[in-house]
Amino acid sequence: MTAPAPSEKALVPFVSVDNMMRLVHHIGLERLLFELTDVIEADFCRWEAFDKTPRIASHSRDGVIELMPTSDGEIYSFKYVNGHPKNLALGFQTVTAFGLLAEVSTGYPVLLTEMTLLTALRTAATSALAARHLAPKGSHTMALIGNGAQAEFQALAMKAVLGLETVRLFDIDQRATEKVLRNLAGSGLDVIACNSAETAIEGAQIITTCTADKQYATILTDNMIGSGVHINAIGGDCPGKTELHRDILLRADTFVEYPPQTRVEGEIQQMDPNYPVTELWQVIAGLADGRREAGQITLFDSVGFAIEDFSALRYVRSRVRETGLFQEIDLIADPDDPRDLFGMLQRSNTLKDCA
């Protein structure tokens, strides 16, 4: 005798790392980045529909473990993510993640998925979304300072969304730059390795900083930044971790995701509490100005926010259905009588004895 099969609600679609990679190749990386950018943009346009809270962080001397929840009233999402810069020396990822979607009406999960790859994709798509609204029109060259795990995704998202042509690379670890050169060969981008950050930003309309060290750092100094550029600062994403000299922020118009989180974690943690910022969603929704003039310096002080993960999760859920690139896992206890969880446990032992 065998136990009754779980009901449909008890079986949760699970997207493994292997299936996430298959999904990316099925859709096409640049097409996926373009589509994901549009999904994030659509959710930013309904920003006020979401529950919003700064991520819940557990800090240690080795790194941070965070939970990032949100809901639009119908679907709830959360992401578990860590940040451990020292992991690289151990041969581990510095960032790993997984995420979940659930029905608000029942609380039942409807998707469980890896999010280490998906976080890289959504971070790149969010950077491209900000550049779509803030970078100079016709931007064709980006300087990429910090050539770690995010670098290729950032470059290809800018290519897919903005038509970027040239990427100028610098990292203090030459092996990281060589890795990006290999990985972007044949991408259609002109990829140039540079021997300093100053050289890398020459001729760039977009400057992206993406470094991993958990410390106050000065990757860009004020004298390096000319008028008219757009800066994506995505490396500063926790207390005590920055990349830009504060004088740059005094010259720039700064755009953020969610101010209560960014003022603690972003570049603006260096600034006075009343330092003026504009929320990116307001620009996207047409409620605030973005780039007003050619000489303006715009800064997207990006720390990553839960609504972006929500967008990425709902995108995967919609796209994975048609592919079958998931497994159904028996995640939720499913007694015939919802009041009799103990009885289900007891019967399972009886059925095992009868087998």
Structure description:
The protein is α/β, with parallel strands linked by helices and 355 residues long. The chain folds into 2 domains: 157 residues, 2-Layer Sandwich (ornithine cyclodeaminase, domain 1); 169 residues, Rossmann fold (3-Layer(aba) Sandwich). Helix content is 35%, strand content 23%. The protein is built from 12 helices and 17 strands. Helix 2 crosses helix 4 and helix 2 crosses helix 11. The radius of gyration is 22 Å and the shape is globular. The protein starts with 10 loop residues before the first strand and ends with a helix. The relative contact order is 0.18. Keywords: NAD, Plasmid. This is Ornithine cyclodeaminase. Pfam families: OCD_Mu_crystall.
* Major sheet details: 8 strands, parallel
CATH topology of the largest domain: Rossmann fold
Structural class: alpha/beta
What is the CATH domain class of the largest domain? Answer: Alpha Beta
The CATH architecture classification of the largest domain is 3-Layer(aba) Sandwich
The CATH homologous superfamily of the largest domain corresponds to NAD(P)-binding Rossmann-like Domain
> Helix content range of the residues, please?
25-40%
The strand count comes to: 17
Using only CA atoms, what is the Rg? 22 Å
Distance from first to last alpha carbon: 6 Å
Low-confidence stretches: none
Strand order of the largest sheet: 9-8-7-10-12-16-14-15
Average pLDDT reading? 93
Q: How many H/I helices?
A: 12
Outline type: globular
